Queue: 4 jobs
Job 1
Amino acid sequence: MSDDTFMGVPRSKIPWCPTIDYDKCDYCMECDEFCPHRVFERREGEEKKLVVAHPENCVVFCKACGKTCDPDALTFPDKKETIELIKRLREEGKDGG
Amino acid sequence: MEGSREDAIEIVVLPCSGLDKEAGSASRELALLLQEKGASVVCPVLYQRSPKRYEKVLGGGRLLVIDGCKTGCASKLAAECGLKMVKKLTVTEAAKERGVKAGKNPNLREALRHLLPTLADELLSVEPVETPVAVGARDPFVGPVTFREFSVDKFVFRVPDSGYFFNENDCWARVEGTLARVGVSDYVQQSASDMVFFEPPAIGTEVSIFDEVGSLETTKTALDIISPVSGKVVGVNQEVVETPELINEDPYERGWAVELELADFDSDRELLMDSGAYFDYLKQKAEREHKELYGG
């Protein structure tokens, strides 16, 4: 399902995905309904009824699911830091690191 | 309630009918306020049962859509029915911008009620987005664009031969001097289906590379335009605001979304693919996705 790389960097090395604030989440499941990449998973009968089960499926720099969240329970990593990380990893890749 | 007046109708309102939530009720109240001011209101429930009743009203007016919350039922209904929205508002979002939080706010109902007259006035002052700059005889972006294409099953994808730069979010920038036009690729328009609404950024917005620079709604989904370049928004494609399906018809030329004055393209360029690299990237991606969906 997930791409192996993003901008030449292994996707697994880019920590971009939503984080659920469970103090705010009201389990409306709108984010899960919206996201076509199967990032979230519902957990029936568990305390956390929704989890970020497949972070590697999240499209880097996409925050669209956050727009569906009325209680603002979804946050994302800092974009500038993510860009810097990608740049660094690309440089390391060029150097054979 | 059904907007059956005989006189010319300019503003038509399609509100949320989520009466189980405060914001849903507020969207209905807001619609009624607008009706008092001369707008016609489309009942979403009746519209779904009997769309013909609103054919005339919807055919002759500018449609404002009011969603109660981010579930966006009213705008989804408009998109599913192919209704062209000129403006939309989400009550919880508009309230948040004015310091009223939804969630577990016990005073939400009262707080929203106070806001409604302001929101009504704002909605009625539907103004066209500022017209784009640099469109006309001296438009630097006018010029022939040639394409390469490839097929995956019955789908044919086009990528410009040159002059365009892409990010891996399938958004492009066409750069001319210190200006760039930004849009979404042919792959996006085909995957996302028919475009029904383009919400542009404000003129003057400073954008960093990979920031959202407008959003699109289609009959299938909603998506952000992730900017491939940094800069200041200096133009918005008014044609696309009014006719979002232009993105489907011509994603790389007439379907551009915004124009930016570039801030540091040399730096941005390091993180982008040129047309040739994007062609190869997209071909692999489209083939992989097709295999995942249909096997083989």
Job 2
Amino acid sequence: MSSKIRVVIGKPGLDGHDRGAKIVARALRDSGMEVIYTGLHQTPESIVEIALQEDANAIGLSVLSGAHNHLFRKVLDLLKMKKAEDIVVFGGGIIPDDDAKALMEEGVIGIFGPGTPLDEIVSFVKDNVKVIE
Amino acid sequence: MTEKKTLSNIKIPEKSNSKMSSSVLEQSDAGEFPFTRGVYPTMYRGRKWTMRQYSGFSTAVETNKRFHLLLKRGQTGLSTAFDLPTQMGLDSDDPLSEGEVGKVGVAIDTVEDMRQLFEGIDLSKISTSMTINAPAIILLAMYAVVAEESGIDPKLISGTIQNDILKEYVASGTYIFPPKPSMRLITDIFEYCSEKYPKFNTISISGYHIREAGSTAVQELAFTLANAREYVRAAIMKGLDIDKFAPRLSFFFNAHNDFLEEISKFRAARRMWAKMMRDEFHAKNEKSMRLRFHTQTGGSTLTAQQPENNIVRVTLQALAAVMGGTQSLHTNSMDEALALPTDKAATIALRTQQIIAEESGVTNFIDPFGGSYYIEWLTDQLEEKASDLIRQVEEIGVLEAINQGFI
């Protein structure tokens, strides 16, 4: 098995804003990771399924529609249900500080708002996502 | 001397000189073909632009309260933000709507919701823009029912539906149906409204979202006009008379950071559209050649850091839209990079427009930048570069260009 970090970048919900997701996907890819981008309008179920089938180490969620509380939690719950909590979840979008704090307490490992330098996201993923051989 | 470029990468000449653009001398007046200086002869001396802040959240009742508040503060038109389930044609209780109901806009499931949304607002006096695309035909029908029930003559109903599906495939992603049946729905609306609601804008052909998704000013211009041409062709193929439907086509552009380039962009857009309509589609009615547009300041230019600075950005962008001759304007709130606008931020955004309109004096003279060597040169440059890009799109075909990801 390859020792590269494998990340699924997911767009859950009805939100069509994919510029951020695509830019982050490209930055992670360019830093040597294997990145799978789900495309728009995915459900939490489909994203978790993709992560399982792709043997991903992490899921990065992008939500700019305000539905983050519901969607991030649903993904965490599904991972728990599938006993796949080794897959870590991070994300970004328009997520107010209070919501970000609450989501982090519930298990999301990092939330990156607008203006975050790409290097910061790349280093964060490298430092916090482990490849399980 | 270091080389200078516009935000869209156009190389700027080192020195100003009178031979930069022949357009400086060849200019027609505002209200005359090709309308570079403005679509109306009197522009803001006759009537100011419509101050139209995009608004909507939660339920119809809550949004109706906000509409009343905005009108009380001096806003002159309404602009409805629908939530994503409504934009995707889903009911609020659909499993796919979970977590999304009432978030980015108001949830409208039924005509009863639409009645509540406009409760107490005289739809014969206030024009309403609705940002709705894939299910536009349904929401327009609901709106028309509400207006007609309150006894308003359908011929007086004015407003706009966005109804621009091509840019949804390109940039904003709220599509339901494939391109061909979508084009059919859109041209059906052109046909029906030209008879039944002659004051309603049947489409708002949008470059805004394309720019927000990362395009340059040249690409914004080119892709918007290429999409516009595709709608016109589809309508003509259906057998519609150009001068019957074209006067109700409207546009929607972004006002980004490069102040002088943006002014030039709006001027170039008018000239390109007028020429396309007259020379290519043989429109006879001048109304078909007038590019009327809404502008919104550029959301992606706003920063989460030091958000107060966004007030200054928005002011400059709004001023560019006004100098560019916009027909209506939304100014973004300073806190948009963080969350839905607070009441205070939304008020500052509207006051920004009112200060430009009432205090700055810029509305007293039409197209005050017209005749400037640089602006005329840049208008020519944008027209030339965007026309080149349109030709490249034409070689592939618009739908195929979208399909391939060229647009």
Job 3
Amino acid sequence: MEYACLFYVPEDASPGAEIYAECVAVAEEAHRAGAMVDARGLEDASSATTVRIRDGKRLLTDGPFAETKEALSGFFIFKCASLDEAIAWASKLPQSRYGSVEVRPVRAIDP
Amino acid sequence: MQSTLDSEQIDRLFRSQASRAVATLARIFNDLDRAEDAVQDAYAQALDRWPRYGLPENPAAWIVVSARNAAIDALRRERTADAKRQLLANLEALVHADTSFDGEAMDDRLAMIFAACHPALNEETRIALTLRFAAGLTVAEISSALLVPQPTVAQRLVRAKHKIKRARIAFAIPEVADLSERLHDVLRVIYLIFNEGYASWTHADLVRADLCEEALRLAELLGKLLPGQAEVSGLHALVLFHDARRATRVDESGEPVLLERQDRSLWDQRKIERGTSLLEGASWYGAGPYLLQAMIAREHATATTWEATNWRRILDCYESLIDRDPSPVVQLNRAVALAYAHGPELGLTVLDALGVRGVLAEYAPFFAARAELLRRVGRCTGARAAYSRAIELTESAAERRFLQRRLADLTSLESLTS
């Protein structure tokens, strides 16, 4: 099995180098234990765009997804040159039709 | 050598050209802050050098090159990673002042407008960004134009710049497949800016000329960038026709004046002629709501009297408009055109059918239109109720006073006839 550990933090928290170093340490430890798959950080929520397709029309919202009746159920990571390309991929995902797809720039957490 | 240049002249000249330089550099950096910093550096240099050495032959090119050099210096001061090396290469490949320089920097400015109006930014942000970076207004000017406090405007811009940089909103002209949808976003922002100035329902003063002027300038610029494009010409003509009537839209006390009562001799014929020739030069390929609305506005603007208005042609345009945009507001306007083309009874029947569906239940103009039609067929009680509802719903003080006056007129009319 692979497990995703998703972290949620207060919106105004600005983690510094120590937090990052701690994350790297966990990644290294997990790697030594043969448990590491991948780790990514996300840019802050204000850089997010939420994509929904309704009646075949694409609706974009400036900001993170904010629907309390929907829950996180998975993710894709696409390599793109610009937000437009990422939005185009997000629009192909079926979840954009019955749920929401939040597009957020990714940062690597590298040892 | 022009030793008489003072800092105010430089400021004016610089500001008229600076938004092009910001657009060019923003496209390379994908970062508005960096672009602004570089152009700000060039401004400091202009203040220092222009009075001493005279005005450069091509100020626009001078600003781009000086800003480019400032950007190169700034990048070199930072650690040169691979990504920065690429940026430096792009910057170095940029135009030289002495070689051929695309005076309008069309693609850069167009790319800037598309980035500022990107649908991943919220609408308030798009308006602020467009006024700042496409129209070149300062934060203070945007604040007074939008009646929003300066810190709020500044905050919106900071947030937007951050999002553009982090999420990589591209400074690019969209692919053909996305162009018409994205162009629609751009036109919508320009139209919102115009309407914010022209028909502000939420503010006390009904016409704010500065925003109308900016929207006109932006439409003009977009028209230069995409000449003959149906919807671009349509929007440009539409704002010209509306703006031609600006002076007669409100009376001395700031109250709105019905189109019927406006003094047509005061309409700006130059703007009307310009709009008419734009429509004649527009391609029909890609025709949409802006072109159709412009055709409706042209009928009003070119009718010599209210009675001479060609309502059948206006009705035809509304029918085509409804095919593309069946929104309740368009249906309301169509019902009004129908009332003028074929009589108020028919107009009322269609209007009431719309009312039954409930979507216009909170919409002041619906009740105002209904009141006017009921008044025309002599159903005063109904008209009074409709005026009262419109008065309750409108958020504009001037509009409210206008409706109250119409209601009072009606009451005195009734007491005369009873």
Job 4
Amino acid sequence: MSLEIFWMQLFSGVSYTAILLLMSLGLAIVFGLMGVINMAHGELMALGAYVTFMVANVFLKIFPHSVDTYILFAIPIAFLVTFLFGMFLEWSVVRWFYNRPLDTLLATWGLSLILQQTYRTVFGPQEVTIPMASWLDGAIEPFAGVQLPLNRIFIIALTLLVAAAVYLLFFKTRMGLQVRAITQNRAIAETVGINTRQVDMYTFALGSGLAGIAGSVFTMIGSTNPGTGQLYIVDTFIVVVFGGVASIMGTALSSFIIAQLQTTFEFMTTSSYAKVLLMLIVVVILYFRPNGLFSPKVRS
Amino acid sequence: MPKDFLRKSWWVNFIIIFGLLLLLPMASPAFRVPLYGKYLSFAFVALGIVLSWGYCGILSLGQGIFFGIGAYALAMFLKLEASSPELPDFMVWSSVEQLPLAWLPFQSFSFTLICIFVMPVLVAFPFTYLIFKKRVSGVYFAILTLALSLTLTVMIIGSQGGTGGANGITDFSSLLGWDVASDEARTRLYYMMLGLLALCAALVQYLVSSRYGKVLIAIRDREDRVRFSGYDTAWIKAATLSVSCVLASIGGAMFVLFTGLITPQLVGAVASVEMIVYAAFGGRTSVLGAVFAAFAIGWLKSALSEEFPQGWLFFLGGLFLLVTAVLPQGISGLLDYFKKRPTVTGDSQ
Amino acid sequence: MSLSSRRRFIQKSSTLVAATALPGAALWPVLSQAADEVKLGLLHSMSGTIALAEAAIVDAEKMAIDEINAAGGVLGKKIVPVLEDGASDWPTFAEKAKKLLQQDKVPAVIGCYTSASRKAVLPVFKANKGLLYYPTYYEGQEEDPQVIYTSQEATQSVVAAMEWMAKQQGKTFFFVGSDYIYPRTCNKIAKATATRLGSSVVGEEYAPLGHTEFSSIINKIKAAKPDWIYSTVVGGSNVAFYKQLKAAGLDGSKQKLLSTVVSENEIDGIGKDNAVGYYACMGYFQSIKSPENEKFVAAIKAKYGKDRVVGDPMECGYNAVYLWKLAVEKAKSFDVAKVIAASSEVEFKAPEGLVRIHKTNHHVWKKVRIGRARADGQFDIVHESQLTEPNPFPKL
């Protein structure tokens, strides 16, 4: 393997890390705080993607000259829409299921089926085309023979931004403090005066919003169709479970490890074997550390 | 004999349900009977889930794996019988020169039977025992099984020459010389399967009414206390799950008999989660509820997709929400509510 | 019997009786059929992941049925389509096929897209002596007596394409496909053809269905620097693959790529700018200049909207209806055995040109075309062969 390919593979690993992290961050937060397994997370990503599609179309029709900038608007709009939708979901469905994680799993699975069919009915079963902003087209070439696609660099940058924002949110704001308190001990947090209902709602909404950003950004590298959500969900869960719940650090580390392993295996063998090998490794490691890589001691 | 097992009301329900199922073929056109058989093949899986999830609190989202074990085992046997002395057709056009080693033992019916009944235990027990010993919690275990069913699907699809790949294995003609393809044959098989199902239902009811059943409920509700009392809960959980896996495997074999094919879709994550809803709909602690629900949902699926193809997913999703939010005890819980019977509490976790 | 258990008996028995009665009730509307009507089964996925591709085929088939009815029907009878949803689930395909043949007693079914769905229904058609028209390109290796295959098999797509590519400076090939039977079988045939022509295969990669991360595969492609990429990546993965190829600088102007699974419909989803410059090998392209095709495309746009694009499977579905009609008229009967016997050498002036059912092997003589994708999502036809004989079992 030549040096150029080595660098490009390394970059592939890093960009895949960013993708996994972006997908899993929202899920990890929700799972960690509320013990809620949101199997509809994939469909929330799909929602972000469809919102992006609609924003792109609005730009094409109404602001055709600024069409290249649509992605900068689409991402925050996707975040907002999925944030609000997540709030609605929490209020209407999820909040009945606290302390029943297995039931949440089934209920949100049902939700994901309903959402999938809704997308199919509203947008049609086919893929929808989402134009690529021209300034994200192509690649930069830092050394000869090493091409790094621009859109992936954008994704990595965005992920760093989002991760930093989430970190600041949880460790430097009052709201974040409340979230951490509830994660450690919900009952005591309530007695101290924290409005756990409200925090739960906002946290779930945040998790959904992050999923929306992920979905919006993936329109650049993948396809958007009603089944898109299902493709991502199991991988996302593996990352979260492997990393250890209630740990952003764990999710980040887990994303990195899984991404690197996956891209390396894929390069050495075929994609199918890579997936199988990865799963086996994850299962073995989970056997030795059943609560994931970083499992903080919390009083349940 | 456990007192609960001899309870008259349960046996009355048992006779009603199985009686109606027995009479069903006489009230339907012949081509519908294999469909009924297909629906009821999922009843076996649902029975197992009632045992392991309803009574023991273990949520496995990988029952498709074991459904697949039984189904592929029988499919391989039937395919060999249908194709012999040549190679199965899918191997021919995958350029497989000779029968893979793994297929050779499936020329024997006894081996196939052993595979269906015993292999699930060999696969499930050691693995889950080690995991339960590590006290892996319910949620992690569920996700793990989900990932494993996905992995197995990828493996099956990738091994086209050995498993038929994404197409699966189709086109059988006979089992040990007896026709299994025609509607008349499948009607005969229906009655035999019904007998087997009745036996399995009675068996599971016996298990859950016995002292063993009480231990299961205790494990579901407070596993640590059971452990403190000296029971090896990991062993009990693994054993229970293994029984559940054997039932799933039998269901898979039945499925193959009634539909004449097996595909990796039935092994995967989506199918596995759907199998949970059969048990949930019937009432996760109701043995007869599982039988009823498997039939009802299967029937609804066929009926709805004929009239409203778009509607099926909405309906299924709604069903999931219904049984977790509104009807945690499923249909049987609903009936119990109307009769004001005390229910066996089925809080999962 | 006590009061409560009697109530339970009534509740449970009435539910189960209702469960039995309702299928019977559902039967009624279907059993009746007017004397001047004939039913035609359409069996495709209208829901689930494969609905992506099959929903459009149904539209074309329905249009063919409307056209034939407007012109007087088949043997004087109006065709009534009976549409069943396979739901992207192969056992469901088998179930619905059985329903169409045994309950609706249709004289023919046009259906299936994936090879898996076709394989699942073959035993049903064999047992019930039904007739299936299969309108999708596939890998060959089959010649079922109850099936007529109206689209190209491997020699009419893969072999022809490889031969053409070899002539276009094709010394090294890289195969990329989704991991299931069609790509694997096609690659097997393609590899043998490449060897025969003196070219070499420098890479063969498979990605699971639905996979979206192609960076490793693309890096391998970059390392191998093939003259041509032969792609059999299908479905949603296609979109990801093409987008990522473009982002990696391997777009249509820099890397030659040919696919046998991308038609105008797929480009719609992939995005025109992502696919421009790549090649596809099909029997039909929307840009074919012929009076039949212009009429056909105009009719589709008039019926379904001016933004609709037409791809090969749609046209083959349309052809299937007409080929059935012509065979029925030749046999002067709807009887399946007679229609199959009469199908031999039936000709139809299809939008893609003349097609003729082979004398014996149930496939269709058709032209092979290679097109290069334009910026508007249509194809420039760069190569058109003579009528090519179908050969589902080529000697490799």
